[in-house]
Each structure stands twice: as structure tokens, then as C-alpha cells.
């Protein structure tokens, strides 16, 4: 197992680029199962989760064709086996996103239940209820979701009890090939849902309202190929900007979007960063100042994203004052707290709230990555800790951050990978 070794080196300074968004690329790869022609996807990030998804689609019969400039072409017409096995689904929860497309296009799907993960129980009951409302017959047996439909799915009005990102994406994809109109109410407004909808529209789907909490889909009989570029990764972007704030430095992220990061940028400004933005870049400059601790509460978009919570806990750990960080999406997304405390942080957990009192210094220590963003928070903290930090189990970080050590080295960090 590879490890990262980081030596605290003070202020980051420089420019880096954002990769394509993992949480957009994964649903878009699954959406190609709906197509009857080649879909070409550009700006795909080079990540373990992408490799796992391509392996999953490959098992179904879809052979990726690699093109120039990191493009990949996939054709849903090649599908011959509508089955997502446990051994792949357990590696990556987003595999559940093949359920809606397979059922809508081929009338059946056997998809392993993803189960929970380190951050929470992560149920998929709303995906199943929505597909049932569209006429599917679904049984859960032997750890698998076995879904069948006679003819086409039927359009329906579906109200989500809770805002669910993958639930919205699964039903959005299923509805594109359903008979009649589907209305998704209390739908997720996340930019990655909008990116998926735009790709589906390119494939010939009739969708309106994406980005609002009511999405309307007029089903069509078939979808065709198209070209689509994956949007920039707002969470990777935010992680680099927090690293600037944490280290009292300056980081400019290029090839990104400021309009999808408003809640995060507002918190960086509250922490004392000078934030400037352009058409496709964002810069955070702390001008040597220590950050001020911020209070925040995670919630569905456009509120503060749960995927940035751990990184802000790390920043608060070295900030001036005390910040209260409330996690409302996942019941166990504070695994980084114990590891940060081992580095000298002063963080107390009170139910779903981390009370973070900033300390003057953190010290390097051997720590363990427990999930994707927890890992990112440890890396960010290590860059400002005294001495050396060894981050173990970094396969978590490789799921979501492309070339993490190369990009941080560009900014002046002392970080290297040690093969395990
Ligand atoms: C709303 C939200 O912030 N979603 C986050 C969630 O998306 P992801 O799609 O993984 O999770 P959901 O959005 O589906 O879950 C949101 C909430 O709804 C609940 N739920 C979900 C589906 C379901 O069928 N039943 C149910 O009860 C979950 O337990 C959770 O509390 O994790 C991703 C990875 O960290 C983040 O990128 C998303 O921003
Ligand atoms: C937890 C994450 O991803 P996943 O839903 O794939 O586990 C994330 O992107 O922060």
C-alpha cells in the first residue's frame, strides 16, 4: 500500500489546474449505457474510480476506445450483460448509478447493493422507490437489487423525502427513456447533476429544470451518441484553496469555475483570505496571515458541501479562535478528527458537531487515511505541521485526487509517495 510522506514547509505559493470532476464523470460514464451510439467524454480525470467504472462497463460488454487528449468513447449498444457484481460495487458506491440506465434501456438489471462505507450507512431506498413508481418490479435478494420492467418504464411524479444526489441522477437517467413525463421534486441541485443533464441532452434527452429542485423529463424512445466535456472538480479546487489558507500562502487554481463554489469561497473570505476570481480561475491569498476559525454547516447544494467539511476542520485546527462544524449529511463523517488530534489539534466531538479550537502548531505524526476527504484534510494539515507526517492507506485519496503529489509539489509542498 502506497504512503505519502509530507514535511511541513510553510506557505504554498503558485498555480495549479483543476481536473475533471469525479462526481460528474462517474454518472456520465454510467449514462453512456443509455446510448445507441458512441458517446465521447472529454476532461476525464485519471482516477482509480474511473478505472473501476470502466472495468464495470467492460464486464457488461462496453469496450472503451481511448481518443486524443484524455477522451474516451463508449457505446451502450454493446451491452450484453446487465449485471454489476459485488466485487466491483464494493470498491465504489457510484456503481449503483448503472441501475437506472440498464433498467431503462434493457428492461432488467442485477446490481449489487452498495452497503455503507466509513462515512455512513448510505441507503439507496429512494432510488428503488422511484424506479418502482415508474413501473419496475424490484426485489432485493442475496445482496442484489434485481429490477425488471415489462416494456418501457412509465413516467411518474416522484418526490424525494431527502435530497439525494445519486438518487436524483439514477432516476434522471432512467426517465430519459421512459414512456411519458417524469417530474422529480425536491431533486438535488448539485452542479454535477446539471452536468449529467447536459450530457443527456446532448444524447437527445428532453430535460428541463436541472439546477432547480424540480426536474422535468419527457421520455424519448432512444438516445444517441454525443461529445461531452466533464465539468471541473469543485471539491479538488476547494481543497487547493483551503491548503492556501491553512499555510498562509497563495494559490491560483486554473481551469475551474467560481460560480459553483460560492459557499466555500464565502467561508474562505470569512477566514481572512483575499479571494479573486476570473472566467476560469480562482485565487485565494492569505498574505501571510493566520486564518480565523469559521463556523459552518454542511447541507445540499447550494449550501456548504459535505465533501469540503474535513478540509475546513483541518484549517480551523490551526486557526485563531474556535469554529463549530456541523455535519448534516453523513452520520460518521468525522473520522479525520481523531487523526488530526494525534497531530496536536484540539477538536471535540459533540454529536454531529466538531468544536475546533485552533492551536498555535501541529506536529507531524503517522496518520491513517480513512476515507477520501478525510485523507485530503490530513494532507492539508501535514503541510503546516512541524516535522514529517506519514499518511497511510492513500488509496482513498487516489479515488478522488488526480496527481495529488505532483500538483502540491508545483505549489511548493514537500510531499512524496512511497510505494508500499
Ligand atoms: C446531498 C449531498 O450532500 N449529497 C452528497 C452525497 O451524495 P450521495 O449521492 O452519495 O448521497 P445522497 O445525496 O444520496 O445522500 C444524502 C442523504 O440522503 C440519505 N439517503 C440517500 C439516498 C436514499 O435512497 N436514502 C437516503 O436516506 C443519505 O443517507 C444521506 O443522508 O455524498 C457525495 C460524496 O460525499 C457528495 O458529493 C454529495 O454532495
Ligand atoms: C465520499 C465521496 O465519494 P463517494 O460517494 O464515491 O464515496 C466524495 O466524493 O467525497
Automatic annotation (TrEMBL):
Keyword terms, alphabetized: Cell cycle, Cell division, Cell shape, Cell wall biogenesis/degradation, Cytoplasm, Peptidoglycan synthesis, Pyruvate, Transferase
Q: Where is the Enolpyruvate transferase domain positioned along the sequence?
A: 7-408
Q: Give the modified residues of type 2-(S-cysteinyl)pyruvic acid O-phosphothioketal.
A: 117
Positions contributing to phosphoenolpyruvate binding = 22-23
| Recorded superkingdom | Bacteria
Q: In which pathway does it act?
A: Cell wall biogenesis; peptidoglycan biosynthesis
Which top-level enzyme class is recorded in the Swiss-Prot or TrEMBL entry?
transferase
Answer whether the UniProt record assigns the keyword Cytoplasm to this protein: yes
Catalytic residues (UniProt): 117 (proton donor)
Q: What is its EC number?
A: 2.5.1.7
| Catalysis performed (reactions) | phosphoenolpyruvate + UDP-N-acetyl-alpha-D-glucosamine = UDP-N-acetyl-3-O-(1-carboxyvinyl)-alpha-D-glucosamine + phosphate
Give the residues the record marks as binding UDP-N-acetyl-alpha-D-glucosamine.
Answer: 93, 122-126, 307, 329
User: Sorted alphabetically, which InterPro entries does this protein's record hold?
Assistant: Enolpyruvate_Tfrase_dom (IPR001986), Enolpyruvate_Tfrase_sf (IPR036968), MurA_subfamily (IPR050068), RNA3'P_cycl/enolpyr_Trfase_a/b (IPR013792), UDP_GlcNAc_COvinyl_MurA (IPR005750)
Q: Which molecular function terms from Gene Ontology are attached?
A: UDP-N-acetylglucosamine 1-carboxyvinyltransferase activity
What's this chain's function?
A: Cell wall formation. Adds enolpyruvyl to UDP-N-acetylglucosamine.
Similarity comment: Belongs to the EPSP synthase family. MurA subfamily.
Q: What is the name of the protein in this document?
A: UDP-N-acetylglucosamine 1-carboxyvinyltransferase
Q: Which organism is it from?
A: Halomonas salifodinae
Its taxonomic path starts at: Bacteria, Pseudomonadati, Pseudomonadota, Gammaproteobacteria, Oceanospirillales
Amino acid at each position: 500500500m502506497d504512503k505519502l510522506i509530507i514535511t511541513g514547509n510553510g506557505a504554498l505559493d503558485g498555480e495549479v489546474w483543476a481536473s475533471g470532476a469525479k462526481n460528474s464523470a462517474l454518472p456520465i460514464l454510467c449514462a453512456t449505457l443509455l446510448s445507441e451510439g458512441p458517446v465521447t467524454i472529454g476532461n476525464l480525470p485519471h482516477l482509480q474510480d474511473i478505472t473501476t467504472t470502466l472495468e464495470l462497463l467492460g464486464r457488461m460488454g462496453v469496450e472503451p476506445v481511448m481518443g486524443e487528449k484524455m477522451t474516451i468513447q463508449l457505446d451502450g449498444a454493446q451491452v450484453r450483460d446487465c449485471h454489476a457484481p459485488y466485487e466491483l460495487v464494493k470498491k465504489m458506491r457510484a456503481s449503483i448509478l448503472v441501475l437506472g440506465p440498464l433498467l431503462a434501456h434493457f428492461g432488467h438489471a442485477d446490481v449489487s447493493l452498495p452497503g455503507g462505507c466509513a462515512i455512513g450507512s448510505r441507503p439507496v431506498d429512494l432510488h428503488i422507490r422511484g424506479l418502482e413508481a415508474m413501473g419496475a418490479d424490484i426485489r432485493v435478494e442475496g445482496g442484489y437489487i434485481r429490477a425488471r420492467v415489462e416494456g418501457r418504464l412509465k413516467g411518474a411524479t416522484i418526490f424525494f423525502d431527502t435530497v439525494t444526489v445519486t438518487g436524483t441522477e439514477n432516476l434522471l437517467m432512467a426517465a430519459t427513456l421512459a414512456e411519458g413525463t417524469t417530474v422529480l421534486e425536491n431533486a438535488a441541485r448539485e452542479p454535477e447533476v446539471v452536468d449529467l443533464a447536459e450530457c443527456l441532452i446532448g444524447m437527445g434527452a428532453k430535460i428541463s429544470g436541472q439546477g432547480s429542485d424540480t426536474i422535468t423529463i419527457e421520455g424519448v424512445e432512444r438516445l444517441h451518441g454525443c461529445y461531452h466535456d466533464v465539468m471541473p472538480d469543485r471539491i479538488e479546487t476547494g481543497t487547493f484553496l483551503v491548503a492556501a489558507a491553512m499555510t498562509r500562502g497563495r494559490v491560483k487554481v486554473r481551469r475551474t469555475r467560481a460560480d459553483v463554489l460560492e459557499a466555500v469561497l464565502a467561508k474562505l473570505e470569512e477566514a481572512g483570505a483575499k479571494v479573486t476570481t476570473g472566467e476560469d480561475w480562482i485565487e485565494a491569498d492569505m498574505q501571510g496571515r493566520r486564518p480565523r476559525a469559521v463556523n459552518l454547516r454542511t447541507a445540499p447544494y447550494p449550501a456548504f458541501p459535505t465533501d469540503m467539511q474535513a478540509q475546513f476542520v483541518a484549517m480551523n485546527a490551526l486557526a485563531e479562535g474556535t469554529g463549530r462544524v456541523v455535519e448534516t449529511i453523513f452520520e460518521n463523517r468525522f473520522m479525520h478528527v481523531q487523526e488530526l488530534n494525534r497531530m496536536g489539534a484540539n477538536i471535540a466531538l459533540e454529536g454531529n458537531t466538531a468544536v475546533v479550537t485552533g492551536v498555535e502548531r501541529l506536529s507531524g505524526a503517522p496518520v491513517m487515511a480513512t476515507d477520501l476527504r478525510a485523507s485530503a484534510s490530513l494532507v492539508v494539515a501535514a503541510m503546516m505541521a512541524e516535522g514529517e507526517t506519514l499518511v497511510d492507506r492513500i488509496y482513498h485519496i487516489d479515488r478522488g485526487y488526480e496527481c495529488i503529489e505532483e500538483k502540491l509539489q508545483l505549489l511548493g509542498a514537500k510531499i512524496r509517495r512511497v510505494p508500499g
